[in-house]
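Appendix C reproduces, verbatim, an entry submitted by the partner laboratory led by Prof. M.T., so that reviewers can inspect both the input and the predicted structure.
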Amino acid sequence: MTIRRMRLPAAQRWWLLACLAGVPLSAVGAAYPPNTWLQVGPVVVGAGLGWWALRRWPMSNASVAWVGAFVLLHLFAARWTYSSVPYDAWGQAAFGFSIDKTLGFERNMFDRLVHFASGLCFARPLVEIGMRYGGLGRRMAILVMVLAVLAIGALYEIFEWTLTIGMSPEAADMYNGQQGDMFDAPKDMALALLGCLVPLAWHRWWFAGISAPPQPDRSRPDPSVS
């Protein structure tokens, strides 16, 4: 069976290039260099795989934009290893008050924001995959998306725990951002779940425009067919 490769829309190419451009910006001058490539290395691999996959299994510009936005947020947070993003200092400099004290936070909450964003940003892409390539109706695709967000979150937490077993305590804490909270993993998963549930309030708009993938022009031979 041959798979005809599509040309990526310009918007999707720009999102992939923006993610790649964010890698050196995140890596240069990183707050904790020993963990840098654990954070940004997967982005380099993922951008290459994304370019390859999107030509074979097209997705909407909206879904690619949501994934790209999450990757850029991840790279931004990785610059300070998530739990050290100095948003509170920025808030005090810009507005004259402490965000953490105002909201009653006792820890750096930026890593929580990223986990919430993971559910929010991947909701549409996962629903689109279910509808376009899984043959699911919208309601079933939404249900599968919610289950997928929980499963991916659990697998990531297990992977993170397994990876940090061989690290020094300092490197492990900087990488996983636990900040002394023994319930950090389930809280992260709960926020990802909350993030993917938010779009359900506007599901007609959030998941609008999902349709069958475009077909290549078969009237002309494609030299890239493999």
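The chain has a mean pLDDT of 85. Additional entries are available on request from the coordinating office.
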